[in-house]
Fold this protein.
Amino acid sequence: MWSRPFLMSATVTVDTVTEGGTVSRAYGWTDKNDATVEDEATVIRMMATTLLEGGSLRGLVEHLKSEGISTVSGKTWQPITIKRALTNPRMIGKKKVGDNLVDAGIPAILQTRTYNRLCKLLLDPERAKFTGGRTQIALLGGGIARCGGCGRALYSSASAGRAAVYTCSTRSGECPATVSVQAELLDADVTERVLARLSSPKFRAALTKSINELGSRDAVVARIEDLRSRYTALGEDFADGLIERETLRAGTDKVRTNIAATELKMKQQEVLAELPEPDPSAIVEWWEQAGPRQHRDVVSILLDHVTVKPTDRRGPGGLDDERIVYVWKK
């Protein structure tokens, strides 16, 4: 997929403000915005083509890194940086004024049709605009938030005129307590704690070291396949009378645990590749630009579950820390 013209060491920037108040040039254009920088424009078109042909942002980052193509400030390209660059209307010589795109007086690098396809692929604004509450992605869905009364999952529920809440999924009368908490408050508390962890160089270094011990993605996939083969072999040995039921149960439990742990590390590897360096402002900026599914992916690789205990207090109010118990993944 990659061709040799992209081996140049392209030093590029995004718009930043210098100490003197001068705005540095945007990637792909001269400092006066009156012409394109052809080498950089070529890289932009390569990025667009790669993604539209089924390539991934993560794979694109790895390619740019391997070829020594970095930003003007010398930083490594990140998925969010590529996404923002390719969906910026300056790619078609436009700028956004209110809800409209108007001519920016700069030369275009991408064709309008290509730009629109990229926006649909990377942002999908129309789909997001018409997504109803039933299909929205809850930050703590899927069992991450749990009821302190019965231990079962909390689910996100919203009704007209009322704030969304996480409430117990157990049928009425089967849970010894009625657990409910405002989703906005719990989501905000979880987000603050997750971003604090991601912004910690010490935590990120330890997590990265743990993940890297597994080796390449191919090696991880091979390990998972090997574990699944062992799982199947245990069943066959039991069917052939080679092992007892207790041995089968102990063996399958251990294999399942190892598979789950390895799959978690692989998921962590994939998600971490999308994140910027552990700088608080960069992490917050990434989070604000990312979508609900990315938020959920990040939370799911760090947080095993959060339990919400029952309370006798009624009515609006802040989140009581004593109600919330966090269990983080190792």
